[in-house]
Design brief:
229 residues; DNA-binding; mainly alpha; homodimer; 0% strand; 11 helices; Tetracycline Repressor, domain 2
DNA sequence: TCGGAAGTGAGAACACCACTCTCCCATTTC
DNA sequence: GAAATGGGAGAGTGGTGTTCTCACTTCCGA
């Protein structure tokens, strides 16, 4: 945890996730694809464990056993457990961003696009079992752990969320230029929407009665007015 | 962590914090005041350590040494480290609520009262060193840890926040009946305000540039519009 | 004053887990 | 064929929360 300067990804293609580049770059001399496969096996094993246990409280040993790899191999690709969780989180966010862009593409009006993004993002971050697609991973434990990561490694988390942040910023910008909302600063407005939508699950945790919990729609309504629509 | 049913505080006076009753009730037969003193020494020691280290990553041993008490005594009053942190959090929230009510009392207009509460609450939850009173404890580490507690013990955290929640609900209710805001459900509106204000520090963590971070005023502005003022 | 019960202190011991290190074997490379 | 590199297996280390043991003190009723 000392001066861990980010290694420059000299040969990376820009579409590659950042953490993947970082993890793989350590063994760049060897076959790159093989290394990526190994990394992916760790990730798959961790996802499975999270799905089964419903929490991120798995042990490294379990990941090793599940992935049929060695402890040594694990620490060759990940500096520690946090980095593995960070990778999972980054993976999740990347997948979310792709899905969100699909949802947004179905709308044309700026406000409708923003709304679609917010609603879908809410579903991603507070996955009810009913809305979760079959075969998809359970994102809730990762969502929950992300707050701890945000305290310990804010820069990393910020970078991981970036694809979603960028999309939200674009949409808020669109809506602002179309005059359908009126905000002083699009960046701050986007940041607020992001936080409210992504972490409303947190507030809901503190409400006992399920009937009283905030839905995606209600959260969006609040944001909508906050944006001065 | 098995079936830990909350013991009914049969003889408690209602102004006593819940956790204190719980911790003390285990040795109710003995002198109550002495037990409370001992509990308080643990709390003081923990607060000191948090202030010095700027984090909740102290060890139980450090609390023992600092408070000049025994490990056994610690586990006699607290079921574990989480319960100690919970107690600190509950203490903080209680103190906040008192301070917030003072701030609110200086205003008469419903909306001004709500605003005063929101601004002050924001200062409590994201304590800049400049606004922190001399001699007061550093609340940020506890704020940060509270998100973990909320994941692990939502009911406890909910109970701890309750004094603040109640105040917010009252104020939102006042403003709603005065027609200065228009919300469908006061409970949900209050919950939203609470979450946005109390945890905006979290979103700010993900913003590198200090100039871009959301201030109490800006957060309040957003809430204000969200409330349909 | 005596004696037992409860309370308390000191710290050893245990459990768990992230992380490191060493050994050894397989595959590749020259 | 020898050397080097990579990787698997697993013992070992360190830190920390938690429990347990035992001896000492205090309190209270007989």
């Amino acid at each position: 945890m000392d001066s861990e300067s980010v290694e420059a990804p000299a040969t990376g293609d820009a579409k590659e996730p950042a953490w993947r580049q970082r993890a793989v770059s350590r063994s760049l001399n060897a076959a790159r694809s093989r290394a990526e496969q190994r990394v992916q096996r760790f990730l798959d094993a961790a996802f499975e464990l999270i799905d089964e246990k419903g929490t991120t409280d798995f042990t490294i040993q379990e990941v090793i056993d599940r992935s049929k790899q060695s402890l040594r191999g694990f620490y060759q690709y990940f500096h520690g457990k946090d980095e593995l969780l960070l990778a999972l989180f980054e993976d999740s966010m990347l997948e979310s961003a792709i899905d969100l862009r699909e949802a947004v593409a179905e709308e044309t009006e700026p406000l409708a696009r923003l709304r679609a993004c917010a609603i879908r993002l809410h579903e991603w971050c507070e996955p009810a079992d009913s809305t979760r697609k079959r075969g998809a991973h359970n994102r809730r434990p990762i969502s929950e752990f992300s707050v701890q990561l945000a305290v310990a490694h804010p820069e990393r988390v910020k970078a991981a969320i970036e694809p979603v942040s960028r999309l939200l910023l674009e949409l808020v910008g669109e809506a602002a230029t179309a005059k359908t909302i009126s905000v002083a600063d699009t960046r701050q407005a986007a940041a607020l929407v992001q936080q409210i939508v992504m972490y409303s699950w947190f507030g809901n945790r503190l409400i006992s009665d399920p009937k009283m919990r905030l839905t995606a729609e209600q959260t969006w309504e609040f944001c909508l007015r906050g944006l001065g629509a």
